[in-house]
Amino acid sequence: MSMVVAHNIAILGLVESVKNLTAKIDGIDVNVADKVSKKLDATIQAKVDARVALFEEEAATNMLPRSLSTSNNHLVFSTFHFP
Protein backbone atom coordinates (compact mmCIF):
# COMPACT_ATOMS: atom_id res chain seq x y z
CA MET A 1 0.00 0.00 0.00
CA SER A 2 2.84 2.41 0.72
CA MET A 3 4.07 1.93 -2.84
CA VAL A 4 0.69 3.16 -4.16
CA VAL A 5 0.90 6.20 -1.90
CA ALA A 6 4.43 6.93 -3.09
CA HIS A 7 3.31 6.68 -6.72
CA ASN A 8 0.35 8.98 -6.05
CA ILE A 9 2.62 11.53 -4.40
CA ALA A 10 5.03 11.32 -7.35
CA ILE A 11 2.18 11.72 -9.83
CA LEU A 12 0.77 14.70 -7.91
CA GLY A 13 4.23 16.28 -7.90
CA LEU A 14 4.53 15.69 -11.64
CA VAL A 15 1.08 17.20 -12.25
CA GLU A 16 2.03 20.26 -10.19
CA SER A 17 5.29 20.62 -12.12
CA VAL A 18 3.42 20.43 -15.44
CA LYS A 19 0.98 23.11 -14.25
CA ASN A 20 3.88 25.38 -13.24
CA LEU A 21 5.66 24.79 -16.54
CA THR A 22 2.47 25.47 -18.50
CA ALA A 23 1.96 28.76 -16.65
CA LYS A 24 5.56 29.79 -17.36
CA ILE A 25 5.22 28.91 -21.06
CA ASP A 26 1.98 30.89 -21.27
CA GLY A 27 3.79 33.85 -19.70
CA ILE A 28 6.68 33.49 -22.14
CA ASP A 29 4.24 33.42 -25.08
CA VAL A 30 2.64 36.64 -23.86
CA ASN A 31 6.03 38.31 -23.37
CA VAL A 32 7.20 37.27 -26.84
CA ALA A 33 3.94 38.46 -28.39
CA ASP A 34 4.25 41.81 -26.58
CA LYS A 35 7.85 42.26 -27.73
CA VAL A 36 6.99 41.38 -31.33
CA SER A 37 4.00 43.73 -31.29
CA LYS A 38 6.06 46.59 -29.90
CA LYS A 39 8.79 46.01 -32.49
CA LEU A 40 6.25 45.92 -35.31
CA ASP A 41 4.55 49.07 -34.01
CA ALA A 42 7.90 50.87 -33.86
CA THR A 43 8.79 49.71 -37.38
CA ILE A 44 5.43 50.79 -38.77
CA GLN A 45 5.67 54.15 -37.00
CA ALA A 46 9.16 54.71 -38.41
CA LYS A 47 7.89 53.99 -41.93
CA VAL A 48 4.93 56.33 -41.45
CA ASP A 49 7.21 59.07 -40.12
CA ALA A 50 9.57 58.64 -43.09
CA ARG A 51 6.71 58.84 -45.58
CA VAL A 52 5.23 61.90 -43.89
CA ALA A 53 8.63 63.61 -43.97
CA LEU A 54 8.99 62.75 -47.67
CA PHE A 55 5.49 64.05 -48.38
CA GLU A 56 6.21 67.27 -46.50
CA GLU A 57 9.45 67.71 -48.44
CA GLU A 58 7.71 67.10 -51.77
CA ALA A 59 4.87 69.42 -50.79
CA ALA A 60 7.33 72.16 -49.88
CA THR A 61 9.05 71.69 -53.24
CA ASN A 62 6.02 71.21 -55.50
CA MET A 63 3.36 73.35 -53.86
CA LEU A 64 5.27 76.52 -53.20
CA PRO A 65 3.33 79.76 -52.82
CA ARG A 66 3.20 81.81 -55.97
CA SER A 67 2.93 85.57 -56.06
CA LEU A 68 0.93 87.34 -58.68
CA SER A 69 2.15 90.65 -60.04
CA THR A 70 1.63 92.70 -63.16
CA SER A 71 4.38 93.90 -65.45
CA ASN A 72 3.58 95.72 -68.70
CA ASN A 73 -0.01 94.48 -68.44
CA HIS A 74 1.21 90.84 -68.38
CA LEU A 75 0.69 88.51 -65.49
CA VAL A 76 3.93 87.30 -63.99
CA PHE A 77 4.08 84.34 -61.65
CA SER A 78 7.06 83.95 -59.41
CA THR A 79 7.82 81.09 -57.11
CA PHE A 80 9.40 81.57 -53.72
CA HIS A 81 11.82 78.93 -52.50
CA PHE A 82 12.10 78.39 -48.78
CA PRO A 83 15.17 76.89 -47.16
Rounded mean pLDDT is 78
Give the N-terminus to C-terminus distance in angstroms: 91 Å
The SSE string, one letter per element, is: HEE
**Low-confidence parts, pLDDT < 50 over ≥5 residues?**
67-71
In terms of DSSP E residues, the strand content is: 5-15%
User: So how many helices?
Assistant: 1
Rough outline: rod-shaped
Question: What would you report as the Rg, rounded to the nearest angstrom?
Answer: 34 Å
Helical residue percent band: over 70%
**Based on DSSP secondary structure assignment, what is the total number of beta strands?**
2
Tally of discrete structural domains: 1
Backbone structural class: alpha+beta
Largest sheet: 2 strands, antiparallel
Strand numbers in spatial order across the main sheet: 1-2
List keywords for this structure.
single chain, 83 residues, alpha+beta, 2 strands
How would you sum up this structure, described in words?
This protein has one domain (2-79). Helices cover 73% and strands 14% of the residues. It has 1 helix and 2 strands, in the order αββ. The radius of gyration is 34 Å and the shape is rod-shaped.
Question: What topology emerges from the helices and strands here?
Answer:
Blueprint: H1 2-62, E1 66-71, E2 74-79
Antiparallel strand pairs: 1-2
